[in-house]
Write a structure and sequence with these properties.
CATH class of the largest domain: Alpha Beta
Strand order of the largest sheet: 8-11-7-12
Low-confidence stretches: 1-31, 45-58
Largest sheet: 4 strands, mixed
CATH superfamily of the largest domain: Periplasmic binding protein-like II
Helix content: 40-55%
Number of strands: 13
CATH topology of the largest domain: D-Maltodextrin-Binding Protein, domain 2
Structural class: alpha+beta
Bound molecules: alpha-D-glucopyranose
Distance between the termini: 40 Å
Radius of gyration: 22 Å
Length: 458
């Protein structure tokens, strides 16, 4: 344990030092935040030791996996797998936020502790994990291309998970940002779902005004999204930026990465986001919203528009007050550019039970995705499951989800993506909390991301 704590502090002091160089004040504030975060993670590490849903028995092989939030769906798949193979699965239940779980996996890899045999990873962690050699190459078990073809896994997911032409993970959950809206309110005011972000803002303002004037309804909120300083904010930021027609990073003909967006374009996007709050469309506390806060606020019936992932559909369907009132559409933008999200399964390079770990992955791919959809609303990555009758019958907006997946675009694929994400988080969150003005934030985002890109441009 001592070892773990040391590495944790070492890791953070390293990134903090980078930042202090560029901005002393931000550095100090971040240092305080990170020390608090460290303590939180240490508590998590201590806590998670004891939370296992299934204990190994006798000589039976045991594999372990870290999952997040609620286990519904996973619990039945695991039971079935255990009964069929005799291999025990120990589940460590982590927090729902992707950033915290990424940190928990990273710590276990850095300490070379063999805590998890199976890695359930956010697609966005792949570059970092694969480049650090933390994941076993899938070709230790199967011919990856043949395996993906045989299982009919969505082509774009497979491609976005390749690292230097090699495959390390099998995608089992597809994700793309969606716009949830109050169908009843939009039809009451004869509006259809907005096609641009400006239209969204105007519609929200109009409905807010009318509801206030006609019914003295002062509780309504216009638009919410994931505004907290974490990876979810980065997904939202890419969607608006690209929805405005801009691109953050591109590669030139000499294979060099460069920041494509211009300062005035970025400022326009940040002004839009800040304007949502200034004009009373988005509440100030959006800076505390992750996915679940956004979903809960929308489910209470007080929000006109909300950006979220597809998992919220199932939960809104189960909510009898909302079932008839909500609609789902592709995000605004010309063209729309929902962020590619999703989760994949991989075998840890440090596992002592690699064969069994892959056996579990294969079991989920073959027998688990339908269950994960029916119990959790996780969108499968297998094309044929969209034709399955049981899935079709309980998937009211499948056409919108499929269209969003088609439009979806990955976050910048770059070995130093975590650093790029961090810069976006600091400055976009700084704008939303009125700490930075938009001209300054635009300049800093461009300057700092270009600096990161230059370290890999030779
Ligand atoms: C969802 C997405 C994941 C993304 C995360 C951000 O879980 O599937 O890719 O990074 O949200 O909060």
């Amino acid at each position: 344990m001592k070892n773990k704590v040391f590495i944790l502090f070492f890791m953070f002091s390293f990134t903090v030092e980078d930042k202090i160089k560029s901005n002393f004040v931000i550095g100090i504030k971040m240092l305080i935040n990170l020390v608090i975060f460290n303590l939180f993670l240490i508590c998590l590490l201590l806590l998670t030791k004891d939370i296992s849903v299934s204990k190994g028995s006798g000589k039976a092989k045991e594999i372990s996996i870290l999952l997040g939030g609620v286990l519904s769906g996973w619990d039945s798949i695991i039971k079935e797998f255990e009964n069929k193979t005799g291999i025990k699965v120990r589940v460590v239940v982590g927090p729902p936020t992707t950033d915290s779980r990424e940190m928990m996996y990273s710590i276990s890899f850095l300490t070379k502790e063999q805590s998890y045999d199976v890695v359930y990873l956010d697609v966005v962690w792949l570059g970092k994990f694969a480049s650090a050699n933390w994941l076993e190459n899938l070709n230790s078990f199967v011919d990856p291309k043949e395996y993906f073809r045989k299982n009919n896994i969505f082509r774009n997911y497979v491609d976005s998970l390749a690292y230097k032409g090699q495959y390390y993970a099998v995608p089992v959950k597809a994700d793309a940002g969606l716009l949830y809206y109050r169908k009843d309110l939009l039809s009451k005011y004869k509006l259809s779902p907005p096609k641009t972000y400006y239209e969204l803002k105007e519609q929200a303002k109009y409905i807010l005004k009318m509801e206030k004037e006609l019914y003295n309804n002062n509780d309504l909120v216009g638009f919410i999204f994931q505004g907290k300083q974490y990876e979810g904010l980065v997904c939202n930021f890419y969607e608006v930026l690209r929805g405005f027609g801009y691109e953050l990073v591109d590669i030139d003909s000499n294979n060099r990465y460069y920041v494509n967006v211009k300062e005035n374009e970025l400022k326009e996007v940040l002004d839009y986001l800040k304007g949502l709050i200034e004009e009373g469309v988005t509440p100030k506390n959006v800076i505390n919203y992750e996915e679940e806060e956004s979903r809960l606020a929308f489910s209470m019936g007080k929000v006109i528009f909300a950006r979220n992932w597809p998992y919220a559909i199932k939960l809104l369907e189960e909510n009898k007050d909302m079932r008839e009132k909500y609609g789902v559409s592709v995000l605004p933008g010309n063209p729309p550019a929902p962020t590619v999200g999703g989760w994949a399964l991989a075998v840890s390079a440090y596992s002592k039970n690699k064969k069994e770990a892959f056996e579990f992955i294969d079991f989920v791919v073959n027998n688990g995705m339908k269950e994960l959809f029916l119990k959790r609303g996780d969108i499968p990555t297998k094309a044929e499951l969209f034709e399955d009758n049981e899935i079709k019958n309980s998937f009211p907006y499948s056409d919108v989800v499929l269209k969003s997946l088609e439009y979806s675009k990955s976050r910048t694929i770059h070995p130093l993506y975590p650093k790029i994400s961090n810069i976006i988080q600091i400055y976009v969150s700084g704008v939303l909390s009125f700490k930075y003005d938009t001209a300054y934030a635009s300049k800093e985002i461009i300057k700092n991301i270009q600096k990161i890109l230059d370290t890999t441009n030779f």
